[in-house]
Amino acid sequence: MTIMTTQNRYPQLVLLVLLVFFVISFITNILNSIIVAVKDSFELSLSAAGFLPFSFFIAYAVMSIPAGFLTERYTSRSLLTASFSVIVMSCLLFVLNPTYNYFLGTLFILGLCMAVLQVIINPMLRFAGGEEHFAFNSVMAQVVFGGASFLSPWLYMELAKDQAYNSITSFLPQWIPLDFPWLSLYLFFALLALLILGIIWLIPFPENEPADPAQSGAVSAYRELFANRWTYLFFLGIFAYVGFEQGVGNWMAEFLKSYHGFSSDQIGASTVSYFWAMLTIGSLVGLLLLKILDSKKVLVLSSTSAIIFLLLSLYGPNTWALVCFPAIGFSISVMWSIIFSLGLNSVANHHGALSGVLCTGIAGGAIWPLIVGIMGDMINLQWAMTLLLLPLAYILSIGFWANPLIRNKTFGRKNLNQ
Predict the structure, then answer these.
(1) Domain layout of the chain by residue ranges
(2) What is the distance between the alpha carbons of residues 316 and 382, in angstroms, rounded to a whole number?
(3) pLDDT value for 161
């Protein structure tokens, strides 16, 4: 495996980055599995429940670009230490004060930390693993990311199986109320972050960390990008993708409970897990497809199949829903990479600054789940989730109007600009 070869400059840092990807995914996507339990614990409406992912993902809009400037002033070790220290404190304080308003604040703080970590680890992976191995190591990171999203619902399912005999809550009964089994996850996150902090200080970092050309650029670079229409079009593409991904991920368990009577802490959580597992498998299949077809065609195929699977999930029988919701994960697996690469390949320079702008589009994960929650209260959840066809339609349109300066290389294409 490439990450273990001597060709990597700092293989221990590559492993650290992969571990950080695991933690980011574990903390970010656990909300997909527990949102129904949180809704029941706090007796929330669908709209109020929709503010939970909003609080988390809106932090990306606030922090992504400032995080790019922070990387130019502070070392990766310092920023990693600060981020994981804040994660520890925010999770512990929430466990001690398990209220809805405090949870909203905790999710926002965690979102700020995730935004900083996302900006740090990609340039760090490129430098530590070597530029020639960046593509391979990036795929490895996505596999780790998807694997963590697959595993996190199973941890919640184990915690929810028998609360009375749960080791964590029996050890700290005054911290974890019996009717809040999901709360123990945030104690686990605090302990996990503490472990990462120890690893960060045990691993040697380079003494003179070079400025990475892929990091966010100067203010002038942003001015130039904001004058380019492609910046806005692909920002909306990332906004639409993350909004759709989280809109489906956050509400599928509630849909299965409300319309088919499936338990949210077992069947619902396992379906969420399979959704992320299929997304991981689909990303590996997508690597092959991108060597055969132009990325725009792959995007059209994935968008069309996602539309079909969404409709079957929402309007088919219960057995179809259990299969088609995970199938959506398989369909959308290549969307992030294709939209991001088409965006970067549509401008001639300032790619690091553009990456920071595109990452603010992750805030789509705040807006679309909230829209679904509000509309679910006004109409019903089935029709509200049908509105997720709108971001899918925009993603589908990218496959027709995108005009990158450089196209992806396929087996039959000799010239990248062909």
Answers:
(1) 9-401
(2) 11
(3) 62
Q: What SS3 class is residue 247?
A: helix
Query: Distance between CA atoms of 15 and 20, rounded to whole angstroms?
Result: 9
Higher pLDDT, 55 or 215: 55
Greater confidence (95 vs 406) lies with: 95
Long-range contacts of 346-349 (CB under 8 A, 24+ apart): 346/230, 346/234, 346/402, 346/403, 346/404, 346/405, 347/225, 347/228, 347/230, 347/231, 347/405, 348/405, 349/221
d(CA 174, CA 42) in angstroms, rounded, equals: 18
What's the number of CA atoms in the CB half-sphere (13 Å) around residue 253? Answer: 30
Q: What is the DSSP letter of 182?
A: G
State the amino acid at position 75 in one-letter form.
Answer: T
Query: What is the pLDDT averaged over residues 383-400?
Result: 96
Residue predicted with more confidence, 165 or 267 = 267
List the CATH code of the domain at 9-401: 1.20.1250.20
d(CA 384, CA 326): 19
Tell me the two tokens of residue 178.
């019996």
